[in-house]
Here is the input.
Amino acid sequence: MNPHKVLTAIGLVLVLIGLIGVAWSVQPASGSTTVTVPAGAGYYGYMKISGFVGGHLSGDFTVTPGGSVSFYVLDPTQYADYMQDLSPSGYMFTTTGSSGTFSADLPTSGTYYIAFHHGSGYEGSAQIVEVNYNVSGIELILLIGGAVLLAAGVVLTVIGLRMKSKAKAMEPAMAKPPATDVTLFQNKPKSP
Here is the structure.
């Protein structure tokens, strides 16, 4: 196989993968999880969410078999504070209840936390919290990775196509004659 064909093929594959990466970088993510908060004061449940640049987190929660929970959306600093005594000094979103919806803007990419603990008077029983969430925004790793692969693919494709053009230009202008018993000379010898 010709080197220009190999480079062009690799380049086109990288372009395709890069386009997929860039397209996926702006796709919203969603999920659902169930967390049990054991009976007893001081117990809590949480989930980690990867935030996107310019992102937004929203969803809903339900507590079974009943009762209420204190529900928070926290950044890493707020979550570290929350783990100390279940009382963060700040939060991105909070509510208390047996069910509800939540919404918070995610200012930067990184890890965010959904955390919850027993509501007042419900510390004596285990509570199951079901959380459904949606995260939107731009996922930088996929965007940058896709853009790099896209650029590399374009460069390799261009190099492969230029190699093909050069190879074609170096071929003789005249097509090869069919094989016969006649010998064809391109340049006539000069007589002395």
About this structure: The longest helix spans residues 140-170. The chain has two domains: 3-22+143-170, 28-138. The CA atoms of residues 33 and 131 lie 5 Å apart. The chain has three helices and eight strands.
